[in-house]
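Quick note —
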Amino acid sequence: MSKKLFVEFLGTFWLVLGGCGSAVLAAAFPEVGIGLLGVSFAFGLTVLTMAYAVGGISGGHFNPAVSLGLAVAGRFPAASLLGYVIVQVVGAIAAAAVLYLVASGKADFQLGGFAANGYGEHSPGGYSLTAALVTEVVMTAFFLLIILGSTHGRVPVGFAPIAIGLALTLIHLVSIPVTNTSVNPARSTGQALFVGDWAISQLWLFWVAPLIGAAIAGIVWKIVGDEA
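Predicted structure written out below.
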């Protein structure tokens, strides 16, 4: 179990450093910024690469919502859930700290939104709380359904990380304008702790909505996703 927890820490660290790092350091870099498309692919690539690297050890969750969804679906032991969630959150916070150290090394550094998730006036597109809630629930639910389906025994082995990484890319392409895309409470927590203020006060949504979406997906899968 200690190995599983350690690689969950590493995987979540890489997800936040790669995904949020692309948003903070590279999205609007003068003249050659990667933009929304680049950030979306960065998040997808973090999951794809670490799923191949360490997914065989821990299952490659890197996300409390994923761990919960898999537990609800009967694909992950509930007794291991708390440990996974703790190391995922710690990994996200550690990555946010490294990102802050790097970003603050620029002479004219301003923290700004620091890739934190938000709604209302803190939504990139000014979307409401209701819009943010619906988006995060639906996107997380479909993310979990894709994870559950692509890792099913009847699917060819070895291709799941590709489907999962592309799914996360697609999710970001759709929802960055709404919430800056969470679907991952650990990712949201790490950034919010450094932004403070509004990001902390809105953080509840980015725990509640992804966990609800994941639980819904787990229940749906138990109904439609018969085991091989």
